[in-house]
Amino acid sequence: MRFRQIKNNIGRAVAATALGLAAVSVHAADWCSGGVWVDAMFASYHVNPDPGTHFEEFNPGLGVECWLNGQWAVTAGGFRNSLRRPSYYGGGVWAPEFAHFGFVRLAVIAGIISGYNYGNWGLGRNHSVGPVAAPIIMTEYKRVGMNFIIVPPIPSDNLPFTIGFQLRVKF
């Protein structure tokens, strides 16, 4: 993918996130009583990739988390994935109260994501939309934090276990 296409896709993701934040802020008192976080995806680490494969480890993107209460959130966003393709995601986050340890929370995200070859499990053109479920280690201190997302492998794209890194800011 050429730089101009990447720049345009990132621009669209930024515009969609800004529009989403504007819409969320209108009803934030009703919907997002647990807070609104903006996530900046920036990197990934691939655990034991096949020899000779090279994955992109700089993965810029933006997302938003709308916390309905202290345990449940809805989330959406976009980023450039490790295969140098645009990815968009949407889903829910569950961070149960018993998994909070000071400034560290254990959570799980489940939903759908695009930009990967899901083979027979995929939907859409080229089977590039599929399910995702991943554990998250969330850290936060006041209004800033970081997510460590442990993404399971996607064998049909030869993608190994991956750890995604997101910076978070609460609004």
Structure description:
By secondary structure, this protein is an alpha+beta fold. The chain has helices spanning 3-26, 28-31, and strands at residues 35-46, 58-67, 72-80, 86-94, 100-101, 104-114, 129-141, 144-151, 162-170. Strands 1-2-3-4-6-7-8-9 form an eight-stranded antiparallel β-barrel. The longest helix has 24 residues, at 3-26. The chain is globular and about 45 Å long. The N and C termini lie far apart (33 Å). The mean pLDDT is 88.
What characteristics describe this protein?
single chain; 171 residues; alpha+beta; eight-stranded antiparallel barrel
Briefly characterize the structure.
By secondary structure, the protein is of the alpha+beta class. It is built from two helices and nine strands, in the order ααβββββββββ.
Structural class estimated from helices and strands: alpha+beta
Instruction: Using the CA coordinates, give the radius of gyration.
Output: 16 Å
Which consecutive residue ranges, at least 5 long each, have pLDDT under 50? none
Measured between the Cα atoms of the first and last residue, the distance is: 33 Å
What would the average pLDDT be, to the nearest integer? 88
Strand order of the largest sheet: 1-2-3-4-6-7-8-9
Largest sheet: 8 strands, antiparallel, barrel
Shape: globular
Q: So how many helices?
A: 2
Report the portion of residues in β strands: over 45%
Tell me the number of strands: 9
Tell me the series of helices and strands, N- to C-terminal. Answer: HHEEEEEEEEE
Question: What fraction, in percent, of the residue positions are helical?
Answer: 10-25%
